[in-house]
Specification:
Elements (H helix, E strand, L loop, with lengths): L1 H18 L4 H21 L3 H24 L4 H18 L6 H18 L9 H14 L2
Length: 142
């Protein structure tokens, strides 16, 4: 199920690339699916700690991205998207899902450098960086 959510996040990041927005209805659908995944994994493992750590990791990532959004580095849609992705990744990676912002910012910086090299404006959608960072963090813990 994690692979389905992360594949959907890649598709959603392509919407972000095309429109510079992350539509709430898509992020909300992804959130519902992610929450059901966390609940199912927690029930199957008979462990409430799994659900609590996933929610904690998601809250940490949402807090970091809320600060980024207030400063103007990312949009508030990226904050919601990051929280949902952290919820999904935390099922596999635990609290290490809190490293998603660090990796996503590094990916964004690389994209900015590449855009500057091609003499394009620095502004770019951050959703793809988030999706790639989430996949990388998850793959490190499989």
């Amino acid at each position: 199920m994690t692979a389905i959510v992360l594949a959907a996040s890649l598709a959603l990041s392509l919407v972000d690339e095309a429109t510079l927005t992350l539509p709430n209805r898509y992020v909300a659908a992804l959130a519902v699916f992610a929450a059901s995944q966390v609940a199912a994994a927690s029930l199957l493992q008979h462990s409430i700690e799994l659900a609590l750590s996933a929610v904690a990791a998601s809250a940490i990532v949402a807090g970091i991205y809320a600060v980024f959004a207030i400063v103007g580095w990312v949009g508030f849609g990226d904050t919601k998207f990051a929280a949902v992705l952290a919820l999904v990744v935390a099922v596999v990676a635990g609290m290490f899902a809190a490293y998603i912002p660090v990796l996503a910012i590094l990916i964004s910086w690389a994209r900015i450098l590449f855009r500057r090299f091609r003499r394009r404006p620095d502004q770019h959608p951050h959703g793809l960086s988030l999706a790639i960072a989430s996949i990388v963090v998850m793959l490190l813990f499989i």
